[in-house]
UniProtKB/TrEMBL annotation, chain A:
Parts of the chain that traverse the membrane: none
InterPro entries on file: Cdc20/Fizzy, WD40/YVTN_repeat-like_dom_sf, WD40_CDC20-Fz, WD40_repeat_dom_sf, WD40_rpt
Bias kind Low complexity: ranges: 92-103, 569-580
Bias (Polar residues) ranges: 63-84, 163-191
Gene3D superfamilies in the cross-refs: YVTN repeat-like/Quinoprotein amine dehydrogenase
Pfam families cross-referenced by the UniProt entry: WD40_CDC20-Fz
Stated name of the protein: WD40-repeat-containing domain protein
Region (Disordered): 1-203, 569-588
WD repeat locations: 320-354, 396-437, 527-560
GO biological process terms on file: anaphase-promoting complex-dependent catabolic process; cell division; positive regulation of anaphase-promoting complex-dependent catabolic process
Automatic annotation (TrEMBL), chain B:
Name this polypeptide is given: DNA-binding protein
Classification lineage: Eukaryota, Fungi, Dikarya, Ascomycota, Pezizomycotina
Primary subcellular site in the record, as a coarse category: nucleus
GO cellular component, one term: kinetochore
Biased composition range(s): Low complexity: 1-14
Keywords, in A-Z order: Cell cycle, Cell division, DNA-binding, Mitosis, Nucleus
Subcellular location: Nucleus
Swiss-Prot/TrEMBL GO biological process terms: cell division; mitotic spindle assembly checkpoint signaling
InterPro entries given in the database record: HORMA_dom, HORMA_dom_sf, Mad2-like
GO molecular function: DNA binding
Region (Disordered): 1-20
Length: 588, 216
């Protein structure tokens, strides 16, 4: 009986309480605390008992002792206030922080002290009441002021600070000696306040606490463990910016990687070859003859027959600084140290003419039909029409230092020149007064220049010792389309006519030939070719064999662009023709 | 690698046993999650450039080309982490896995990838009327990895050499081998946080969060 009597008011009050809260303002007068306390005594006039079946059912469900009612009140009140108070995180945070190490024990102890009569939570409401018990504890006992102060950031920071402070404040609340709330406040109102704070805290359901703890990064039950061994060092520093600009997989596949012969096909002696980077002393003409300048002589080696002939010997006061076959393969132009340029008919073995004009040695030449362009040490490039008496047709003045690379495009529309001033100039055949593009990317002399056979406007250029770069240019737009660090001085570049490949010749330390795939710029093979730097290179007319001359006085032939078996008919000619020859032979 | 492939095989066979809408066992689910961790660590190391790209090789997984380290040292390091991690996962001892990227020069924490694992209770599982198919799970993981990959677009550039650490939030009663020691959370100070997609099996739910320092 008593149970019902006690219960009824509690229930109704809590309902009222919650609804008032929901209204927004909590009136001070009917303090839930006093009510609750009053209800506890059997003398309190019971509120009109609710006889409706609903309530009865609920009561039955609760099925708890009279003692439990107070507890229930608290829990239900607290729950109702929860809905109202939407912002308990700071307080909760603080509590979580406080309770970092031994929180559970503290609470338990307090609850004993606090509510001696409190019943065990009902089974039904276990989940709920577990927390409220704690909070109840805090109300009367220990925790609430601290939590309030915890709303101020400083207090929240120093979680341990809260404890001592809380002691005194607890007293305030419990005794209603009102330093905090002011002297006017009645006992009840202060109690109410207490309640209010309590209830703010109390709502912590398990999940809520967990989420808070998570937010703070603390969890009572968990440990943060780190895998202690240090991770392995990265093999090199990484710049993601470059990583995103290249394919993830390197494109060396079986298909692009073909077998390249790494042994020389033939080795010839080339005694007296000048070790001068700026000269161009080797050329392989379309008549399948190799011309090489050795000091004061020019020798012609016939690749068809293997015979060697001395084409010319200069006067003792000068030397051969460059040789170049005309496009039809019947004439050789010879640049001399004096600046003269001679044109020789190889078949007849006679000199056709001498063209003067340069005042210093002519280190490089290039033919475009009847036009011969010559570059000199002074940096001047002259175009000569070899058919007419007044042979000089143009002066291309741009380089300020020795010209060492000069190459006409196969269609004669553009001329590329490279110099010791680190410039790459691209000239338009229709307008020779100024270069169309002047590229300053190289950091050393540019000797190696090569036009791509399958893409007219693609030019490759390679820099000297301090540069080591191979750049690829679109000569229509002037844009650099590709670059690769070759690792050492680039002395010569030759495109393959059969494969999408380019071969570069290098100086120290490896003096190697490198075959690159284009445009992937994957190294297909690296052949250590000579004992000293590879000075000159020339490609056979059939495009299969590369001849290289180095200052180790060797002229070597490399079959690096061998045609596949099916298409090897034309190549067999050179092979058979060479059979009768010794592997090693001397030109001179 | 070998342990991993084995585990994936067993999960696969588990799954294939009774068709599409098969409910993964708790054990299978734990394996799936730890396998997921392994790929996430690898992906983060690759995407964030902790190790050079050429150290990684592509592996087909989750219907994607996942990049997995090919460097023996890194492989061994991750394997060591994973072997312990999968033990913990099976025991349900882990609530979080964190990958922290730190600068080698300053030792500062630059980026923090946090994977929260929720072990869904029996009740929750029962409540879910619909059980995810293998395909759905894979799709969820796939879209998360796509997000991780895409995250490089908003994450700040990591300058200089970086290193990484793996943290685990383990239950207090978890067995802890010698190599693992207590640590702080290595939070990013004043970090931005971005929550990525979640995925889950019927027994686990994995939430992913990346926090990073905003570039000055």
């Amino acid at each position: 009986m008593a149970t019902a009597a006690v219960h009824t008011p509690v229930k109704s009050h809590s309902n009222i309480f919650s609804s008032k809260h929901a209204g927004g303002r909590v009136p001070l007068t009917p303090s839930p605390r006093t009510r609750a306390v009053a209800n506890h005594s059997p003398f309190t006039p019971p509120a009109p008992a609710r006889r409706d079946p609903e309530w009865q059912a609920e009561k039955k469900k609760q099925g708890n002792a009279s003692r439990g009612s107070l507890h229930d009140t608290f829990s239900s009140m607290s729950l109702s206030t929860t809905k109202r108070s939407t912002s308990p995180p700071p307080a909760a945070k603080a509590s979580a922080a406080t309770s970092a190490s031994p929180p559970l024990r503290l609470d338990l102890g307090l609850s004993d002290w606090n509510l001696p009569g409190a019943s065990k939570p009902t089974t039904l409401k276990k989940a709920r009441s577990a927390k409220p018990t704690k909070s109840t504890v805090r109300i009367n006992g220990d925790r609430f002021i601290p939590s309030r102060s915890a709303t101020s950031p400083t207090a929240a920071m120093k979680a341990n600070h809260t404890r001592p402070g809380s002691r005194s404040s607890t007293h305030d609340c419990a005794n209603s000696s009102d330093d905090v709330f002011g002297p006017d406040n009645s006992n009840q109102s202060s109690g109410e306040e207490c309640e209010d704070y309590t209830s703010r805290k109390s709502p912590k359901s398990k999940a809520y606490e967990a989420s808070i703890a998570e937010a703070v990064g603390l969890n009572l039950g968990t440990r943060i463990l780190a895998f202690k061994p240090a991770p392995p060092e990265s093999s090199k520093p990484i710049d993601l910016r470059t990583q995103y600009n290249r394919p993830l997989k390197s494109t060396i596949s079986a298909q692009t990687r073909r077998r390249i012969l790494t042994a020389p096909e033939r080795v010839l002696d080339a005694p007296g070859l000048l070790d001068d980077y700026y000269l161009n002393l080797l050329d392989w003409g379309s008549s399948n003859q190799v011309a090489i300048g050795l000091e004061r002589n020019v020798y012609v080696w016939n690749a068809e027959t293997g015979s060697v002939s001395c084409l010319l010997e200069t006067t003792p006061d000068t030397y051969v600084s460059s040789v170049r076959w005309s496009q039809d393969g019947s004439y050789v132009s010879v640049g001399l140290g004096t600046g003269d340029v001679q044109i020789w008919d190889v078949e007849e073995g006679t000199k056709l003419r001498t063209m003067t004009g340069h005042d210093s040695r002519v280190g490089v030449m290039s033919w475009n039909k009847a036009t011969l362009s010559t570059g000199s040490r002074s940096g001047n490039i002259f175009n000569h029409d070899v058919r007419i008496a007044e042979h000089k047709t143009a002066e291309l003045l741009s380089h300020t230092s020795e010209v060492c690379g000069l190459e006409w495009r196969s269609d004669g529309a553009q001329l590329a020149s490279g110099g010791n001033d680190n410039l790459v100039n691209i000239w338009d055949a229709r307008q020779m007064t100024t270069p169309k593009f002047s590229k300053t990317n190289h950091k050393a002399a540019v000797k190696a220049l090569a036009w791509c056979p399958w893409q007219n406007n693609l030019l490759a250029s390679g820099g000297g010792t301090f540069d080591r770069q191979i750049h690829f240019w679109n000569t229509t737009t002037g844009a650099r389309v590709n670059s690769v660090d070759a690792g050492s001085q680039v002395t010569s570049l030759r495109w393959s006519t059969h494969y999408r490949e380019i071969v570069s010749c290098h100086g120290a330390p490896d003096n190697q030939l490198t075959v690159w795939s284009y445009p992937t710029l994957v190294k297909n093979v690296e052949i250590p070719a000579h004992e000293t730097r590879v000075l000159h290179a020339a490609l056979s007319p059939d495009g299969q064999i590369l001849a290289t001359a180095a200052s180790d006085e060797n002229l070597k032939f490399w079959k690096i662009f061998e045609k596949k078996a099916g298409a090897a008919s034309s190549s067999s000619r050179t092979a058979t023709s060479g059979k009768g020859m010794t592997k090693q032979m001397t030109i001179r | 690698m070998s342990t991993n492939s084995k585990s994936s095989k067993t999960t696969a066979s588990n799954k294939s046993k009774d068709g599409k809408a098969h409910k993964l066992s708790l054990k299978g689910s734990a394996k799936l999650v730890s396998e997921f961790f392994e790929y996430s660590i690898n992906s983060i190391l690759f995407q964030r450039g902790v190790y050079p790209a050429e150290d990684f090789m592509p592996v087909k997984k989750y219907g994607l080309n996942m990049l997995v380290t090919n460097d023996d040292q890194v492989k061994a390091y991750i394997r060591k982490i994973m072997s312990q991690l999968s033990k913990w996962m099976l025991g349900g001892k882990i609530s979080k896995l964190v990958v922290v990227i730190t600068s080698k020069e300053t030792g500062e924490n630059l980026e923090r990838w946090q994977f929260d694992v929720q072990l869904l209770g029996k009740a929750a599982t029962a409540a879910k009327s619909k059980i995810k198919t293998e395909k759905e799970i894979q799709e969820e993981i796939q879209s998360l990895f796509r997000q991780i990959t895409a995250s490089v677009t908003f994450l700040p550039m990591l300058d200089g050499r970086c290193s990484f650490n793996v943290l685990v939030y383990a239950d207090g009663d978890a067995e802890v081998p010698m190599e693992w020691g207590d640590s702080d959370a290595k939070e990013i100070v004043d970090g931005e946080k971005v929550t990525l997609r979640s995925w889950g099996t019927s027994s686990h739910k994995v939430d992913t969060l990346v926090s990073y320092r905003l570039a000055e």
